[in-house]
Amino acid sequence: MPAIVMCASFVGFGALVRHAGLSVWHGMLSTATGWGLPGQIALVEMYAAGASLFAISLAVAMAQARLLPMTITLMPVLNTGKTPRWQPFAAAHLVAVTGWAVAMRECPDMPGESRMPYYFAFAGTLWVLTIVATAAGYALAGAVPAMVNLGLVFLNPLYFMLLFVGDVRRRARALSLGFGAVCGPLMHLASPDWGLLATGLIAGTAVYVADRQLGARRRA
Amino acid sequence: MRAAVPEALQESSVYWPLILLAAGAVVTYAWRALGVLLSGRIDPDGAVFAWVACVAFALLAGLVARMIVLPMGIVAETALLDRLLAAGAALAAFFLLSRRNMLIGVAAGSGTLILLTWARTELGL
User: How high is the pLDDT of residue A1?
Assistant: First the structure.
């Protein structure tokens, strides 16, 4: 079930790639080498907007920043001490929200030596499926009427909107999402090149500071 | 004297998308490799992580909101009201009609946008 939703979101990405004027190979290469839909969407959207290499790299880096804490928390679960040193680095390439969530749930109950193979099989399958889904979305976008295309491209923001609103139990996260959503369009109007970066840094830092203040006041 | 911009770095070049994709791959994998190197050594509940998470979520929410309110490409031709109604339909289907089923949510949202846009153009509403 999570695999189907994940593939649907990459179908939307494939459609977005076509409408940005890129080729199907660009889309598949993006999914194969820079796996992580938020960064991929940021890259394609900013490419279409004509942003600079520096601005795009920074925005992609920020959009993918969640991979750092995810990898840090996943590796001790997979790594049981006997695995060859290259394996964690290969496994890290396959970290994505869906596979990570399943592995964090399932792996602690497994014998140590079967965790890494299980993860490679499960996350590797998701990876291959999403590459295929990207190509399928690209092809589909060229085959269906213009109005259905609207729906395919619009899958991207809808998917992330639902992913985020489904998980707002932590106050800092809910505030970041809300403030970021307000700032995003406004800062884009101010500067299409830097608006996204400014939104992340300004709204994110403001929420971080506010959350610490609120937390400190509650404890005092 | 200013050095000329190499041809591959010009936006009209066929290599330009490949250079962007390579940059995207490098910055994406950098987080993953750093994660492997730091795992077990730094506290995932610490202050740096909390700040990074706030920045990342604000940036992503900003991107999603911008794609709905100020989209680019073909979606830019739809009406803002239709896009907002579509987003509302996705939320309603996700929270009210299904037990937080993402597939039903996104299908309801995209379907609503297609229907409303069709109604506007075909029926002249």
Answer: 64
Q: What are phi and psi of A50, to 5 degrees?
A: 80, 30
A168 touches chain B (CB under 8 A): no
Query: CB–CB of A35/A127 below 8 Å?
Result: yes
Q: Provide, as residue numbers in chain B, all residues whose Cβ is less than 8 Å from the Cβ of A61.
A: 27-28, 30-31
Tell whether B105 is within 8 A of chain A (Cβ). Answer: yes
Q: Which residues of A22-36 are buried (b: 16+ CB within 10 A; e: fewer)?
A: bebebbbbbbbbbbb
B51-81: pLDDT as tens digits: 888 888 898 899 899 999 998 878 888 999 9
For A138-142, A164-168, B26-30, which range has the lowest pLDDT when averaged over its residues? A164-168
Would the pLDDT of A127 be above 90?
yes
Verify whether the Cβ–Cβ distance B64 to A59 is below 8 Å. no
Question: Chain A interface, mutation test: which of B18, B28, B123, most A Cβ atoms within 10 Å?
Answer: B28
| Domain locations in chain A as residue ranges | 1-167, 169-220
Q: What is the domain extent for residue B123?
A: 78-125
**Closest by Cβ to A180, choosing from B35, B57, B91:** B57
CB distance B39 to A72 below 8 Å: yes
> Read out DSSP for chain A?
-HHHHHHHHHHHHHHHHHHTT--HHHHHHHHHHS--HHHHHHHHHHHHHT--HHHHHHHHHHHTTTHHHHHHHHHHHH--S-S-THHHHHHHHT--HHHHHHHHHHGGGS-HHHHHHHHHHHHHHHHHHHHHHHHHHHHHHHHS-HHHHHHHHHHHHHHHHHHHHT---SHHHHHHHHHHHHHHHHHHHH-TTTHHHHIIIIIHHHHHHHHHHHHHHHH-
Q: Based on the structure, what is the number of domains in chain B? A: 3
**For B100-118, what is the mean pLDDT?**
93
Q: Find the mean pLDDT for residues A189-217.
A: 88
Same domain, B54 and B69: yes
